[in-house]
Amino acid sequence: MFAVLSRDQVEKIHVATIEILQRVGVLVDDKDALQLLADAGAQVDYRKRIARIPEELVTYGLKQVPNSFTLHSRGKYQYRIGGEREFISTGGGALWMLDLESGRHRPSTKKDVEDTSRLVDYLDNIDIYEPMTYLHDVDASMLDIQATHAVFRNTSKPCRLLTHESKYLKAIIEMAAIVSGGIDELKKNPIFVGGASPTSPLMQKSDEITVTRMLAENSIPNAIMPCPITGASSPVSVAGTLVTVNAEVISLVLIAELTNPGTPLTIGVGGPTIIDMRNAYASMGTPQAALITAGCIDIARYYGLPTWVTAFHTDSLIPDAQAGYESTWNSFFPLMDRASVMLGAGSLNAEVVASCEKLIIDNEIVSGLRSLSHGINISDKTLGLEVIESVGPGGHFLAQKHTAELFKEEQWLSKMSSRLSLQDWQNHSRDTWQMARDEALNILSTHQPEPLETGIDQQLDEYVKMKTDT
User: Is 308 exposed, middle or buried (0-12, 13-18, 19+ CB in 10 A)?
Assistant: First the structure.
């Protein structure tokens, strides 16, 4: 198993985390959550809203979390999160869309959520959809409801649904219950994952606590993902950032598990950002962000818990060479380290921009990395002694049965990479961005997702109309 941290290094981070939780504590901006922690044995300063958490309480909280859970969908998909396979998710919440037709950046709309969720429904290496863009054409009070409506109508794959304010989570749960066939069925077979993000350094804000507890009360999985900024909201060192992130994650895990023991959770990190000390610019595309992500995966494995981490991040505004190499190294570690879920496909400019073309390219990156992750197959057949002997010195293997039987297993056959001669390329020249654009347009013009049942579709429409009218 690939890992960036040894077990000894992870144990040092764990010990440091326990020390921070006991000596420094975390700010918990919620009276009920403070009382919950106090009743369980935490040392609470109600005036400062600080909870100091003893090691035995940390141990209790971590032991309550299931080491895996099944994420269902409105369609045929069922994923074991925390099992042997890794899953790929889109990024979410971008403010800008790279327009497919013009190639220019514009404010994102509900149609962008509809289009990108339909693309993901088709792409074979993108498994989970999160609303990729902000809905600038929708009233603020309807953002989460309209995004959820677009997702359920345009993809049959599982999804991660976030809320801009905790007061709108109830509506998301009610819509998911309509699609699932009732709240009891949703609790038993959740079709979406929620999310909460502790505020670095060492803070649990009221809104995130409310989300965490509501998800726990309804047995809906929660992906807990702090978003540290090294050198600003976390230490500039990778190791120091891992300690603060781990303390933030564990304290929110504990609140969830004290609310409802056995609540399914994933732990990880969301978009670790590096402050470039030369100019104070923030970067998600840097290799250190990839190291922080990989370190969080190793820590989660030490605890035996599933992970939900960011990948594919780039600082580039367009699908260019920079986007390609930054997305690759930010997804290489999580995939090789067997993260449960890798989030971020289709994102540009540190998740400020979403792109259909980038979705196509990231789908290709995942395909290639999955081929690498399989390693080298050593068997009597692949060693090929008989065919080597048959061909002998100076022969060739092109027409051999051995080649025909194995080439699809032994070779990754790209759908995007140019392997043309110079002359052919000059006659049919298209760069990667153009090829991805053409592919996205083709999919959007031909692919239709599995439709919702007529009755459910009508109930969703009526629910959205009722919320709009009120």
Answer: buried
Does the pLDDT of residue 168 top 80, yes or no?
yes
Residue 1 in this model has a pLDDT that exceeds 80: no
CA–CA distance, 372 with 332 (Å, rounded to integer): 10
Q: What is the DSSP string of 138-197?
A: S-GGGHHHHHHHHHHHH--S-EE---SSGGGHHHHHHHHHHHHTSHHHHHHS--EEEEE-
For 71, the 3-state DSSP assignment is strand
pLDDT 10s digits, 330-339: 999 899 889 9
**Which CATH code, of 3.40.50.11440, 3.40.50.1970, 3.20.20.480, 3.30.1480.10, is assigned to 63-373?**
3.20.20.480
| Average pLDDT rounded to a whole number, residues 108-119 | 97
- Strands lying side by side in the sheet with 353-355: 105-107, 96-98, 353-355, 347-348
Task: Output phi, psi for 233, to 5 deg.
Answer: -95, 0
E strand residue ranges, 356-416? none
Q: Which amino acid is at 277?
A: M
Neighbours of 125 (CB within 10 A): 17
Name the token pair of 377. 């197959």
CA atoms of 248 and 323, how far apart (whole Å)? 30
The secondary structure of residue 415, as a DSSP letter, is S
Over range 91-97, report the average pLDDT: 95
As a whole-number percent, the residues of the chain with pLDDT over 70 amount to 100
Amino acid at 309: V
The distance from CA 167 to its chain's CA centroid, rounded to whole angstroms, is: 23
Alpha-carbon distances of 434 from 14, 102, 103, 126, 354, rounded to whole Å: 47, 12, 10, 20, 16
What is the Cβ-side half-sphere exposure of residue 152, based on CA atoms within 13 angstroms? 30
What H or E segment, with its residue span, contains residue 204?
Answer: strand 203-204
pLDDT score for 91:
92
The residues of the chain that CATH labels 3.20.20.480 are: 63-373
**Alpha-carbon gap, residue 341 to 329, rounded angstroms:** 16
**Residues near 164 by Cβ (< 8 Å), separated by ≥ 6?**
140, 143, 144
Peptide bond into 201 cis (omega under 30): yes
pTM for the model stands at 0.93
Would you tell me how many other CB atoms lie within 10 Å of the CB of residue 160? Answer: 23
pLDDT in tens, 337-353: 899 999 999 999 999 99
